[in-house]
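Interim report, section 4.2 (structural modelling).
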Amino acid sequence: MEKAPEQLYQEREKRTHDAIQLQVPDRVPIMSLFGFFPARYAGITFEEAMYDYDKMMKAWVDATVEFQPDMYENPFTIRYLGQIMETLDFKQLKWPGHGCDVMTSYQYIEGEYMKADEYDAFLFDPSDFMVRTYWPRVFGAFDPFKNLPPIHSIITYYMGLGAFAAFDSPEIESALETLLKAAKEAKRLIGGAMEYAERMKQLGFPPQFGGLSQSPFDTLSDFFRGTKGAMLDMFRHPDKILEACEKLLPIMLQIGLSAKSRGHRRVFIPLHKGLDGFMSPEQFNTFFWPTLRKLILGLIDEGLNPFLLWEGDCTSRLETIADIPKGKAVYWFEPPFYNVHRHARRCEGLLQKAY
Amino acid sequence: MSEKLVDTLVNMKEQEALEIAKELIESGEDPLEILGSCSKAMEVVGKRFETGEYFLPQLVMAGEMLRQVSEMLKPKLKGAVQSERLGKVVIGTVKGDLHDIGKDIVVFMLDVNGFDVMDLGIDVPPDKFVDVIKEFQPEVVGLSGFLTLAFDSMKETVDAIRGANLRDKVKIMIGGGQIDDEIRRYTEADAYGLNAMDAVTLSRGWIGGS
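Predicted structure of the assembly:
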């Protein structure tokens, strides 16, 4: 007799959670990062997947049902982005049909979206910096926001009401209209994610991740300073990097903790610049690991299970990254497990603590 | 040769290195001598990278310091004889791939090690490589790519070079995040490299130079 979806859901969730807790599961749990594979498999273009709600829904549901991983990957928040990015004139990606071939995955455009001399503005008030400096660079539609007064200067009737005058310009009005349009598109995106989650639940699949986060250094390097900028800062402004990472830590923690409010335990953390090829063990210990470790511990303290994808070789730092609580997190290595296996004796602690 | 300049460059002391370079220029030092010190420093940096003492951030900083010293020297170098180059290398990130950080570092390391490098940028179609090989006549072609889609683009590029009857005129090396010997066989390139110094070693092996 076929199992009911509720039973399958519970079995799959238990299988995964047992493995994380270092209990022997009934079998090895399988998870997948499909990328755009379901689109190719369904015979639609990647561009269609990014713009067509129904086609994306069907392609990803079908692939999950056919391949039966133990957990599903929700494609909406990371793939159904075409329309909203177009509306916002998003600068950080080129995507299928917009700078990339229709059958090529989107690609990130590196840049110094925060300049080296802007650390102090960021540290003083990251949100104000983002709205008035970062957003105008990242979203073409919000370019006029660079003319707004400091957001934190509008406090009360005698401190700031007059500053609202800056909003009375055709450029700002147009930017706000675009914002409202994007809001509707964002709602459709979130609606898609919710509908997809519900359909998966009805089919008996739990989600791989309830949320995601990023290491503070990666956030600084990937999105604000750029790889080259962050590397030069290691020599020119090492203290500013450390301050910025500490500033980003509670923000990254807050973003990761949103999984909890959705009732899920697993938080995905892709890792980019802390690898052997990108920085020395000393630089890793100085700039990367301290705030990442705090992020991992912070999520674990709230009952969550961080899933860290080390996107490259990190053989030289296995002992360092083993320093986390046992049975609480998953380390996922790329290149794969042989790497750890080969160095099993050196990273015994790691093998005992992380699955 | 200024030992102080070499030492500060090698040890990533940017401000001191730039001040020493400025003083040397102001004191009338031969600009080619200053460049010689820079080359010596870059050689040591490259060796330290090879031995695992230095990592990418040091290469990036070395490149940045060299760029600044070269800028300072530019007005003095007008009319100076361009130092002899070991050989020509054409390099680019293959079609469909927009990544350039690794490629840029390879270009920098080849350049400071004496090769005449033509950088075609990112998302370079096979035809472009073919046209440039005909015109520039390099001994070595470097294909860079970070994404898995680059495997097919590299293969197409090698095929196009073969199709234009240029395959025996150039050695082809590939490199990038996921590249290994299996990909080299698939693309039918001559060799692959794991990092920027590998590109220098391969080019030296094919072209010559110490």
